[in-house]
Design a protein that fits this description.
The protein contains seven helices and five strands, in the order E-H-E-H-E-H-E-E-H-H-H-H. It is α/β, with parallel strands linked by helices and 182 residues long. It is elongated and about 75 Å long. The relative contact order is 0.09.
């Protein structure tokens, strides 16, 4: 059975083009989402994944309608494979029920892994270069040693409460307490 999935990002867009293409591809049931591709929670996609059975094919109009990223797309297709289901994209002419379609997805997977490794290497090189120049990185501390000493002095006075001390230093009470412990 061919199961369709269509997604648009905003209510201003229309699903007609995708629905027409999915019906033409032979989809008996179509799930939809009106959500940004970057969103993790897509009810329509989740329902489609639950609906699929062994031997079924999840069909999309274009690859970008399914995956937030290449890695997410590959994760979804691998999830389909574990169920014994397949994936088809009508525009890119990819069909994982064929050996050529499987090869295409293995190539996508290799490219995604390669891209992830390159990003990791660049990030590490950038951090190493920054450390060599004396930069530490991370979020700046909200209180330096001088302000911590001031906070301790203010808190030692019973007339002051944590809320007022934190407010005067421009920090939250949790930050105040965390710094007073150290």
């Amino acid at each position: 059975m061919q199961i369709g999935y269509a997604r648009i990002s905003t209510d201003d867009q229309r699903l007609d083009l995708q629905f027409d293409a999915l019906r033409k591809a032979g989809c008996n049931k179509i799930f939809k989402d009106v959500a940004s591709g970057a969103k993790d929670d897509r009810v329509g996609l989740d329902n489609a994944m639950r609906y699929l059975r062994k031997g079924d094919t999840l069909v999309v109009w274009k690859l970008d309608r399914l995956g937030r990223s290449l890695k997410h797309l590959i994760d979804v297709v691998n999830s389909l494979g574990r169920k014994g289901a397949f994936f088809k994209s009508t525009q890119e002419n990819i069909d994982t029920s064929t050996s050529g379609g499987k090869l295409t997805f293995h190539l996508f997977g290799a490219l995604a892994e390669f891209e992830k490794d390159i990003i990791r290497e660049r990030t590490k090189a950038g951090l190493d270069a920054a450390r060599a120049r004396g930069r530490i990185g991370g979020r700046p501390k909200s209180l330096d040693d001088k302000k911590i000493a001031l906070a301790k002095q203010l808190m030692s006075n019973p007339a002051n409460n944590a809320h007022d001390v934190a407010k005067s230093l421009g920090i939250s009470r949790a930050t105040l307490y965390r710094n007073l412990k150290s």
